Amino acid sequence: MTATPRDIVAASLDFGHPERLPRDLWLLPWAEQRHAAAVAELSRRFPADFATTRYFYPPSPRVQGDPYRAGTCIDEWGCIFTSLEDGQIGEARTPLIADLTDWKAVQPPWEQLPASARDRAAARSVISHYYESTDLYVLANICPRPWERYQFIRGSENAYYDLADPDGGLRGLLGVIHAFNLRELEFWAASDVDGIRFMDDWGSQDRLLIHPDLWRELFKPLYREYCEIIHGGGKKVFMHSDGCIEAILPDLIEIGVDALNSQLFVMDLDRIARVAKGRLTFWGEIDRQHVLTSADPETGRAAVRRVAEALYDPSGGVIAQFEFGLGTQPATAYAVYDEWQRWDEEHHLHP
Q1: Of 318, 260, 320, 263, whose CA–CA distance to 289 is shortest?
Q2: Domain boundary assignment for the chain
Q3: pLDDT per residue over 102-115, tens digit each?
Q4: Looking at the whole model, is its pTM more than 0.90?
């Protein structure tokens, strides 16, 4: 019997010798607007094994504008974003609170979460209906991001200044964000999904953005709670973090991250393999900065081979993922998936 996409992803996460390498393609509206035919062909030839559940929160009265259109928009927390180009999300350039002493005024969008038992049952019915209708690996339609949310509220420059004195309001505001995330995760952990994502971008091009000890003091406990809730509901933990995050890889493994999406090409792949191979699943990715933007498809093929040589194992632990976003060359994107399939077919060993 042929395994379903859900079976294939689950086997990879559990190192259970998946029937083939699982695939996950992240599509930005930019790609669909500019390369619709190429995106359609890529999806037809190499269909993704993942889906996001179709349940959406009720519209927030705070939301204004379209986050994928040039101009200004406001999200459900009231944070203001500015985008210079259609097809990609903008930046939060205007702090929601300029003075950290005003942190108690920040109001999470509690109204979006199902509050009563009746509302939760109705929401979970929608989620269950979708889950039962597909054999794809289903992720929850959320992605908590405590540090990035903090920056959206305070502005990035202010946020990093705040780290110098965590007791000056940073812990308070972070606690408000964390409390909302916990409630949200508890709802989804009891719903019919296979995995739940969270994220924060923690790396620069060559190191962590803050000292690892400070990260462990302020943020590792938050993520640990997220993992405990997600695992408590029988779901898998998926995390994304851009930049060089080698310093905290052992910590992410320790707290229970099952699949990690990271910028492998700004880190030492051999060191990463020694630390994490066989201990978590590498959920992509192929370099967005130099590889996917190259007009030479061989650049994409070489990048796949480099990742595979370091991290591939037929028992699992790798998901063929990349982002088709700003500047991606369609021919190179196609070559990436074609090379992953070729590698898998040549090296796959059945248990």
Answers
A1: 263
A2: 5-59+95-347
A3: 999 999 999 999 99
A4: yes
